[in-house]
Amino acid sequence: MSARRQRLLPGMKKVTLKSGEERYEITLDAGTDPGTGKRRQTRKRYKTLEDAKNAYSKISSEVGAGTYVARSTVTVEQVCSNYIAGRHNLRATSLSKLAYDLAPLRERHGELPVQSLTRRHIDDLVRDLCVGGTVTEKGKSRRPWSPSAVNKVITTIQQVLADAFSQGVVPRVVAAGVKRVPMPHKEMSTFTAAEVRTLLAAAADNRLGHAWHLALAGLRRGEIAGLRWSDVDLDAGFLSISKSRVMAGNRAVENEPKTATSRRTLPLSEPLKASLRMARASQRRERLAVGPEYGLGEYVVVNEVGQPYTPAVLSRYWREMTVAAGVRSIRLHDARHTAATTLHLQGVPVAVIAAWIGHADASFTMKVYAHSQNDALKDAASVLGSVVTTK
């Protein structure tokens, strides 16, 4: 029997184009639109009856299984925007970081239908982020991003496309196979005990000396910036971590601690207590000198007019302090590493160290923070040498 005399399936018809060519058109129910919740249809044309029947069978099967993805004009920008809008459970800082990680994709391919996005698009974006030169929304050229930053972009794009796939917007996650950028090995930097003493001695006359005491006591940068005098009891000798002041885009915001273990109360060492008393007295003098324009005076670490610092400014002053003290310029966060490592080298149990610096998992503390320094390794060699000997 010829194709012309074969029986057409329901929803299938033969049409003649203006050119005189014949096509087989199928119109099928395509299930519910994930965006509107309404029923939808799909209509496609094929050159041969065989192609039309194969497509008919495939579409019907996918619709029945709930995996059919109809053609869509939804753009990359719309998918990214909808994903961010759906993350209403995130903090302002996390939302800001999410938008930051998606910015390169939205700027380059925002107007592209998301179903037209390919793995090559993403691979090229990854490469360009690594070498530099991607263009921001304001037309500025970006410098090369670190492997860590680029890998976060890859992960975020994969999450966005996986969400679009789960909603039936795209037929597959084209970013699933994108390779991570190799991470270079990076040694963790910490101060030795001698360097800690040198820096704190140099900071004794610095108006932010108490901030560096807090850092070397194991507080996070955001915890230092968000610490209030109401959280400090100098008479009883305790301070409580209840807030963290962090950046959300271009503005500083305060958050509750991320985990229950980050919310903690710590006893004050005598040097830290003395440093905080000096800072309190200094701020009272500054308040008298400035007068009514002085800030509320709530925060432990403030500028000369009583305003709290942003975390980035604290990092800048820390770098200047390390240079002035003549010690190695390690990151402000590495002062926290220093505290954990110092406690470890003094034999403090890892579980206690984890509680001190606010970790829920002591094994994570051991893996990330508590590593041996060169001086400690030399001491270990001496101990080993005194035991393993032929004399």
From TrEMBL:
Record bears the keyword Signal: no
Family per similarity comment: Belongs to the 'phage' integrase family.
GO molecular function: DNA binding
UniProt-recorded name of the protein: Site-specific integrase
Keyword vocabulary terms for this entry: DNA integration, DNA recombination, DNA-binding
Gene Ontology biological process terms, A to Z: DNA integration; DNA recombination
PROSITE patterns attached to this UniProt entry: TYR_RECOMBINASE
Native source species: Rhodococcus xishaensis
One Pfam family in the UniProt entry: Arm-DNA-bind_4
Top-level taxon in the UniProt lineage: Bacteria
Coiled-coil regions listed in the entry: none
Domain Tyr recombinase: 186-382
